[in-house]
Amino acid sequence: MKASEGSLKILTQQENLKKFLVDKGFVSAGTSDLRSQPNAAPKYIIKIDKDFIYLADYVIGQTIQNLRVNPRISLSTIDMKTLEGWQINGSTKIITKGVEYKRLSKAMIKQEARHTAKRIIEDVNGTQKYDFYQVLFPEKAVFIRVKCEKITKISIAGKLQAEVVEKSE
User: Which domain holds residue 62?
Assistant: First the structure.
């Protein structure tokens, strides 16, 4: 395989992962404090833009406390159809105000509406049953911008395929 073919394959995998994450809506976010005390919690995906994943933290608890002292994060998810898992490691920035905060707040409302509609349609079609339809989070949220630095695909056979994400300008 030529280098350009390898690069194309990686880009295709990133695009597939991006679509999967946006459709899924949630990832597990792992953080730790300065004493290496771990914390893992679900986070809502607001959007993905280039090498950045934007998450909403609507609990504003241990995850944010940890990121304030240690800005490293590890996201994980699994595709139950293919049984392929993904780990995304990177650095973070907490967004609590300003223009970017307002843009992300609007994007969160759109995501909530999209996921709510999806849940209703799946229930009506009989493909999935839900106890609650509406995806609605408190207005007060903190956003986390994750700079993707390393993406690892984990196959069902335990094969790891790691990729260091090149810095984008």
Answer: 3-98+138-164
